[in-house]
Amino acid sequence: MRDFISMKDFTKGEILRILKLAKSLKENPQGNLLGDKIVSSLFFEPSTRTRLSFTSAAYRVGAKVLGFDSPDATSLKKGESLRDTIKMTGAYSDVIVMRHPIDGAARFATEVSNVPIINGGDGANEHPSQTLLDLYTIQEEMGKIENLKIAFVGDLKYGRTVHSLSKALSMFNCEFYFVAPDLIQIPEHILKFLNNRNIKYTLVDDYKDILPEIDVMYMTRIQRERFENLDEYEKVKTVYEIDKNSIVGKCKEEMIILHPLPRVTEINIDLDDTKHALYFKQAANGVPVREAMYAIALGKYHLDEDEMDVEKRDSISAHEEIQCKNNRCITQIEKTRNKVLEENGIKYCYYCGREIK
Amino acid sequence: MRDFISMKDFTKGEILRILKLAKSLKENPQGNLLGDKIVSSLFFEPSTRTRLSFTSAAYRVGAKVLGFDSPDATSLKKGESLRDTIKMTGAYSDVIVMRHPIDGAARFATEVSNVPIINGGDGANEHPSQTLLDLYTIQEEMGKIENLKIAFVGDLKYGRTVHSLSKALSMFNCEFYFVAPDLIQIPEHILKFLNNRNIKYTLVDDYKDILPEIDVMYMTRIQRERFENLDEYEKVKTVYEIDKNSIVGKCKEEMIILHPLPRVTEINIDLDDTKHALYFKQAANGVPVREAMYAIALGKYHLDEDEMDVEKRDSISAHEEIQCKNNRCITQIEKTRNKVLEENGIKYCYYCGREIK
Amino acid sequence: MRDFISMKDFTKGEILRILKLAKSLKENPQGNLLGDKIVSSLFFEPSTRTRLSFTSAAYRVGAKVLGFDSPDATSLKKGESLRDTIKMTGAYSDVIVMRHPIDGAARFATEVSNVPIINGGDGANEHPSQTLLDLYTIQEEMGKIENLKIAFVGDLKYGRTVHSLSKALSMFNCEFYFVAPDLIQIPEHILKFLNNRNIKYTLVDDYKDILPEIDVMYMTRIQRERFENLDEYEKVKTVYEIDKNSIVGKCKEEMIILHPLPRVTEINIDLDDTKHALYFKQAANGVPVREAMYAIALGKYHLDEDEMDVEKRDSISAHEEIQCKNNRCITQIEKTRNKVLEENGIKYCYYCGREIK
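Output (structure tokens, whole complex):
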């Protein structure tokens, strides 16, 4: 039994073994791997893509799925705590996939659950299956993950996906370009993280100059609601839209375009039929990756425990007196043990991952 | 692989073979026919009956089902196009059943999907599984489809069901009575269609005179929202309500009453226990008919391609310059190739089927 | 085939055999018991816990599940009657589990359905699977059901769960304490029922004096919306909250605390890790109990018909002239036969169970 809460919980060796298992399941489907198991799919916040992908993955390894796709039809309306919902659902199933709007909800769930928890996204915090499928697609298409030049384009400030993927790629010595207007550029704490690991990166506000250099172009959606000034939104939106004309023939032959989807206008559909367009295949790769996650969560496949980052785990400690200040943190809502994670002398909330000042 | 978008795509021979396959599946259930397949059930518009019937059919041939039952919990809210939703879902499943409020949505889906599409109703346009189960029930109960006298009663103007079934029955040389008040009588384009095929029909505003003649009485619901004048609605509503007293002993012994359901007051429940009441059996027949559709869509059974109306298909062509004028057509929303279908010198939109003037 | 509508339909012997079957299914899972069957799960009113538990139970005996989790996405919006929804759904499945806000809806459904009905709660009336899992848990934990002292605490006036369980326990000669403020004390008709069976009971407004005596403490949630005066609610709420401090060491060693869940504040989470806290195990027991219900409903296991209370059944008769006065009764909504049940000279509505005066 193993939970999937954050990429931080996995070493480089473990990540590579997860991707290898996913590849094996993609090439040799195992329809009876989890034949007698039941998956709880708890979406406290709607997310069709993630939900259907996890369901498809469950079916493909022979599991059954129950749950809810939005909180409207749940006992939450009667005031039930996440604690009790998780305890109850654990009695009805063998593994829980959960999506929740509150940061740290998934980590908290592991403390009260009798069955493994797979985090399908907890607020602005973590979404490990997305990062794993991104890594999987890069490895499958580029033949490796190491030493690539990767541009992240669009909303880099709020994009949980970008934060998580860039941290994970830092294990593989990749070099980054962060392409965004100042307002939504990559946050300082990510840069600090990369600095600590001696990762090369460059911040730019246009992709044109760097386009010939990069191996992977990771596009993200710019959300109107992030902008106070709508004129600025309209200006920025256009700058970060790509199409056939702006890409084909101007980038490396083998450059791939990724996107966590859904896209709106940032990738023109005229790119869809080009060889660079990998975003739909990327979404499809979510299925074998999630099959692998189920297999590991339910103990059908064991990651080598030797490589676990035991030191980091040992540094976790409960400090009753330290309360995380993040208003969107589960510690503000549920009774937890206020655990703190220390790294390089800095304290982070064990649940939501935010620095505690 | 074969899509089910419109009855127009099937020849008479093909229709009969679909019904035969449905009969065979009803009599000899094949629980493992699609054992390793996944059905996407995408209801962009709620429809319990159609959805549950397609799900039951999938289960009965051994398939698994994922999807959504209303658009509330989907990425559509984030602005995702139908194009991308279909592409994504195709990666998670082997066949897509879709219900959509926009005319032509299903046809458009076939152009972007990697997996077969089954139309579970697209706006006011087509709902082929309903027509097939209507035909199935008529054949099973009357022993034939040819040369029957069929009365359509109620809302004939807006009833997609009536339009589609009357066109399909025209292949079988049936004779029609269209029983409705002027305001909601059968539209001119259906009559033109029947005229072109030399089909006999009569328009009446009361069923009493024709009741002794008919073999099938196809009832439909009169929807209040169609009427600007509620007094008129109340008057009309009562005229087109039938009950035991108005039917039994006044029609042929073997006459059957059909209804696409849900009914409200147009068929009194005192008729439910009479031998004429076939509407619940008709709904039940939706299950084997949809099993057959899955089997054909997924290539487990092949319709004889010789009989395909190849000529009609060849006449489809993309005219970039011709834009369909139907405000509810998918061509107004998604980027399509504006294809046009020509028949007897008239141009129809390939997607929504409306005449392009 | 056997319906599960009300505990009244089962003799003591039958109840014990249901619990025995549940125990057997818990100890020896039978994943293929209902392998080819389809369950309709119709939640006309949301209830996550009950729904997921019935779904989990179906999966564990090999059945498939279709249906809806709230009425929002159903044809009910088009005005479809419960009668027709049940008839339709029966055509798509082998057994129907239904939750409905109207009293008597489940009993009515048995009259129009071709497949067995399992009542997952009908308004304020009955919820037999809850009572069965309560009995199951008591038997499993205490080793017996007979001759126990049981305290019901909290909202005893509106709590369907309490009414049903106390009646069922009266077959086992248990003694009751009803612990509640006057405003929400146990209703007169329950006391009359117990009096008729010579059951000992005591009404108190605090649990402290009786705590050392009792074997089972059955807690319930006090709902704010029951109170006109919110000050009174706040006062009462606190009185009926228990925690580690108020319970541990002050009750019998083997006393168990039950709760139908969801709880809000009436049981402090500091009790969760004590041996008295049985409420999560109680919820988990819902799964094997519901497996047993499916097995019996679908004729895989037969309760001994000899023990059926045939006399009671014979006393049911249709009195067209007697209309139940309960505004929330299904007889006010659907066309029924207005059946009446007579017991000890008192007339009860056959559907909603209310006395007809």
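Chain A is about 35% helix and 15% strand.
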